[in-house]
Write a structure and sequence with these properties.
The chain has seven helices and 22 strands. With about 475 residues, it is an alpha+beta fold. The chain has a seven-stranded mixed β-sheet with strand order 1-2-3-17-18-19-21. Strand 1 and strand 2 form a beta hairpin. It is globular, with a radius of gyration of 22 Å.
Length: about 475
């Protein structure tokens, strides 16, 4: 590793992670509060023409009545992301884009959570540039410190592309542009609302009755990690939670747009604390999903959202603010080359069915991409606050064992790599008291899973990721980035 600059910002070269952007804050600070925070919410619910699903097949068919608002005799609709072909018959609750603006010792960071199935690398880059192009751009952080993630709700429009009719993109450009605008507006508004703040951290174990692992082996991350910012007078500005559980409690029969259980969780936190609540998905890959005990549908959504919220509320009430002096920030960001080996995903990208990666693929005969169909640079970022917290991002759905450790073969394993080296867990590179993983952030590349578990014929969801060698390259690169902050 070589240091390219010895200023407050540095570029470091690492063989696993390319160029790292690194920030280290020195021990001095000018006048003013050490911590400031702001938050905002922007509605991104799409416009569409609801229909009556008379035959119950979850999509409009010729002859079914619909609300023809523009009088053109053609239903204007979208595809819902997840569970095959679905079109919305209505709205259960609004979809939003939520941003926490954070300033610590003069350094600014932005964290945005979007009620979306997933957003592509190029779409997020575009939204970030749109935010920075505004009149308030001087007040915003540098681009690599603007973190944008999807909640991964399966009851929102298909923003990835794979849930439309066969070989037809499921994404809608007009709606994606609306999402971009909402992200930019949310970021600007949050920084316009900065005020002095104090920060507290909490964590609670919440998995029994909340989440199940529907794939073998059964490995779950039970922790809900919590960050709260509040004014010195104890008025809450924002409550941030990271949960390892797919937002799909409404399940496949639903045709109403919804944030799923994160919407209930956020609403209950805001009712109790005030301020703005943000939900992020964490290590929910392959596959952490809501407990499907009765009740079903939105009764289940409500049960799980309320249960998570009550656990968070109890934990936060027992936490105390952390002295600002203990929160001096260190930040690093990079893009990690990962091999794309999945033929179907590659075909989806180059055909345009999968949105927002066509300009980002490239060829490389160097490791880790030698022999792969293409190489893709996966963006990551990490923020360390003293010895208190390491917050890091993952651009997809990562399996808990790649984070926590404990990799083992599935019970029914018959794949080709039983003796593949086990990837080093990410938490072996984290030395702070607390951690927070923001998944589906900066991109959505799909599932990242241990190579030794590769067996897509028996574990079909592995087909929704780059391939078996991606995790090793990714963990090595993110591990190097986390080490740079130690």
């Amino acid at each position: 590793m070589s240091l390219a600059s010895n200023t407050g910002y540095a570029l470091l070269r690492h063989p696993s992670a390319g160029w790292l952007s690194l920030l280290m804050v020195a021990g001095c600070h000018g006048p003013g509060p050490e911590v400031r925070a702001g938050a905002s919410v922007v509605d991104i619910t799409p416009d569409f023409e609801p229909y009556t699903d008379q035959n119950g097949n979850r999509r409009w068919d010729e002859g079914e009545p619909f609300d023809d608002q523009d009088g053109d005799a053609v239903p204007d609709s979208l595809w819902i992301g997840g569970f095959g072909l679905r079109q919305p018959t209505g709205i259960h609750d609004r979809l939003t884009c939520r941003t926490l603006a954070l300033e610590i010792f003069g350094e600014r960071f932005s964290f945005t959570a979007v009620d979306a199935l997933g957003l592509s690398l190029e779409r997020i880059d575009s939204a970030r540039l749109l935010a920075l192009a505004g009149d308030t751009s001087a007040d915003l952080p540098p681009a690599d410190r603007i973190i944008i993630a999807s909640t991964h709700t399966h009851q929102a429009p298909d923003t990835v592309g794979v849930f439309g009719p066969s070989l037809t993109p499921g994404w809608d450009e007009a709606y994606l542009q609306r999402v971009e605008s909402g992200i930019a507006e949310s970021i600007r508004s949050a920084f316009g609302a900065l005020q002095p703040a104090e920060l507290l951290l909490a964590v609670v174990e919440a998995d029994q009755g909340f989440v199940i692992d529907i794939d073998s082996p059964d490995i779950r991350d039970p922790l809900v990690n919590i960050l709260q910012l509040r004014a010195p007078q104890h008025q809450v500005i924002a409550t941030v939670v990271a949960v390892a559980n797919h937002p799909e409690a409404a399940w496949a029969e639903n045709t109403l747009l919804s944030a799923d259980y994160p919407g209930v969780l956020r609403e209950r936190l805001e009712q109790r604390f005030g301020g703005t609540a943000l939900y992020f998905s964490s290590d929910l890959g392959l596959m952490q999903t809501p407990d499907r005990s009765e009740p079903s549908g939105f009764d289940r959504v409500d049960r799980i959202g309320r249960a998570y919220a009550d656990a968070v509320i109890d934990s936060v009430q027992r936490a105390d603010p952390i002295a600002a002096e203990k929160l001096r920030p260190s930040f690093a960001a990079t893009r990690i080359p990962i091999p794309l080996q999945n033929v179907e995903l590659y075909a989806g990208i180059v055909s345009g069915v999968v949105e927002g990666y066509g300009r980002s693929l490239y060829s490389s005969e160097s490791p880790p991409c030698a022999g792969a169909l293409a190489c893709l640079d996966a963006p990551v970022a990490a923020l360390r606050l003293g010895d208190e917290l390491t917050l890091f991002t993952v651009p997809g759905e990562i399996c808990p064992e790649l984070v926590l450790g404990g990799i083992r073969l599935p019970d029914d394993y018959a794949g080709p790599y039983p003796d593949a080296p086990r990837e080093e867990p990410l938490l072996s590179h984290v030395t702070t008291q607390r951690r927070m993983l923001l998944g589906l952030a900066q991109a959505e590349v799909g599932y990242l899973y241990p190579k030794c578990t590769h067996d897509p014929e028996r574990h079909f969801s592995q087909g929704h990721g780059p391939g078996p060698d991606a995790a090793a390259a990714f963990n090595a690169g993110l591990g190097a980035l986390l080490d740079a902050l130690r």
